[in-house]
Amino acid sequence: MMLSEVQVKEQRYRVFIAHDVSELGAIAVEASFELVKHQCIPMGIGLNPSSQNNHWDVIRAMIDESDVVFLLVGDSYGQLSPSGVSYVHMAYIYATTQGKPIFPFCLKRSEVSGMVNAHLGEFRKLLSSHKVRYWTVEADLRKQLLMAIRKIKTAQKIGLLPVSAKPSVTVSAGVKNHLSQSSQMKEIKALKQELEEAKKALAINSTALVRGPSKNKTVMVSFSAKVFSGGNFKTISETWSMTWDSIFLAVAPHMLKPISEEKMRLVISAVLATDVQAPIKEKYPESHAVADIRLTNDSINRIKIYLRGQDLIREVMQGRDIRWKLTESGDAYLTELYTEQPISNSFSS
């Protein structure tokens, strides 16, 4: 059979993933593995631009070479450039000026408060001019990624997506398998090796990431509570600011062994209760008791996503049930936090 008798058009899409490494680094790595599985080439994983390196120049070059740009947006506006604009925002602006197709993936119902989160709110409004794909847990993100990949391939087939891909390769049916098992497999192997190295680097630096730009960082959590007054009670919904360290210190000691999501919620809610009892009674002066303080689903999901993104906790399976456990980095960070706790030498009277 002559080579010209059968033509096989192999299309591999180069996808630049813009993300804040300190918040979504590990999730971006997982997203990259998903892209590799579906014949896409992920770009930009683990790049952490700053005024001390030239990564921003590298990012621009990668965007130039990419076919499409994926934006992963979580609870953080992202690391700021000297101009006060986050590098993720800068990547979006540059990709737009270059005419690249933009696919935003935004964490659903992210709280926006304070100066930095005000910037995040404006950024999310800007992204709303595109088709925004929302996610709450990694499974949602994986589903949204697959839908986006299908859309890219469909759009290119009907001529709506100008993909700057490598030239098509004309091969016979007899050598197609050889290509798949040699050059393509080598390429995938090389990509996986790069992703593994990025993942290891993220794991090694996870403590530095938390203690660096994220040290003392706060998050607004939502909760419900029962307020008792005159023999009756009413259920209220409120928000409260907690530091990530306080959240991690509360739940981490229980995660030396795998625990359920509900156990995580109960432990963190118990710590939250000690902080909010007095403010609730002050807001509702007629109340004589406050009980059943409970984090909302949205807040517990946000906590899981953030701690997992920092490589402090990981998902494990026990039978058919999902459990959560400390990673090696999480165990090391817990030890560090405990050694920093102040010691009191006073006696009780």
From TrEMBL:
Residues 14-95 form the DUF4062 domain. Keywords: Coiled coil. InterPro entries: DUF4062. Residues 181-208 form a coiled coil. This is DUF4062 domain-containing protein. The lineage of its organism: Bacteria, Pseudomonadati, Pseudomonadota, Gammaproteobacteria, Oceanospirillales.
